[in-house]
Fold this protein.
Amino acid sequence: MLDLVVRGGKLVTPAGVQQADLGVLDGQISQIAEEITESARQEVLATGRYVFPGLVDVHVHFNEPGQAHWEGIETGSAAFAAGGGTVFFDMPLNSLPCTLDAPSFDQKLSALRALSCTDFALWGGLTPKNLEHLSELAERGVIGFKAFMCNSGLPEFPACDDATLYEGMRLAAEWGLPVAVHAESEILTAHLTRKMRAKGVSWREYVASRPVFTELEAIQRALLLAQETGCKLHIVHISSGAGVALAAEARARGVDVSLETCPHYLAFTEDDLEWLGATGKCAPPLRSASEQDRLWAEVWAGSVDIIGSDHSPAPPEMKQNPDFFALWGGIAGVQSTLAVMLSQGWQRRGLALEHIAALLALNPAKRFGLKRKGQLAVGFEADFALVNLSQSHTLAPQDLHYRHRLSPYLGQTFLGVVESTWLRGEPIFKEGKIVRPSEVRLQTRNL
Ligand code: ZN
């Protein structure tokens, strides 16, 4: 007797789309077959629906403990589940405290256990002030360490100088853990910020203060340090095709690097900031249309490994400032990742559905050592989303599960509707509502 059978869906597997029944027992996928004859406690008819592996988003900021008024775990994970997500990796900032040592890890873990409706992992911070605490974080089970190569905007999370990054990478390499970098040059962006501010404070000067070459300089330096230390490097939110090309070239030479970009770099260009305003501010900034085309070409070619949302909201009042440099940046998008990729990737550019599933689930699970997540295959955890690709939806404020109903994607029409999301064979989102699962689990490497 199975716990669940999903009948007649189109399963998006690593080998391609396959129409089959999917059987679940004890939270795991126990069978995939053209027709499962065994009976089950629960049956779901998925005729005409696509079954995607649950999304693994390696890059979110839910800001709890301490700053739940920015987003919070309950609303953030709900939005993620509504978008087909089942595992997120929470960044070590902008919670208070930041995740920089064992007590702050423990505090965040208990908040996540109490409030999340999906599985999760924790990033630990790597900063000049917590090198001596990295080992505690590794023992606690962080998925990796996150470092900023430029100012993070938060005094409690200072940028890594090269020496700190080098020492942190050496330690992480010893423990087999990845180091993720926000790759923008502090020296160059600080200099250009001063220079551009003297001219004006609109989005145009802001974008001009962080040009593509300032990203390339930091990527190059991080690659060199990773090569030298043997550390697994993960470059978050690469905004440019040139940045991807640079890192992909190093990967071809044997540097152990994975490349992440975000839906907003694929969905918007810098010119959209004219109407998006503050909701479209991020760092690195949105790029020109030609740079975006190059980024899409790199996605197409398979050079990008992972698409993470970098969901990073803030209270609306922090986004109201005529000075584009001074207003708080960060894109609210964790609910829309799959929607963007289905509309912009599959429908518009013909990206295969299994390629999208690889970017959003398979590759992140593999890269970060989640051995039973990220794909629809026997023996893997039964994390999946049922998606109706014959419908579309226009994103309205009432659809958003975020604490603040703000997002650059509001008002846009997307192909596909996520009808339900399942974690270990239990529904966590259906009929527009969140259902708390019986258990959520901390994900660590090789689990
Ligand atoms: Zn981020």
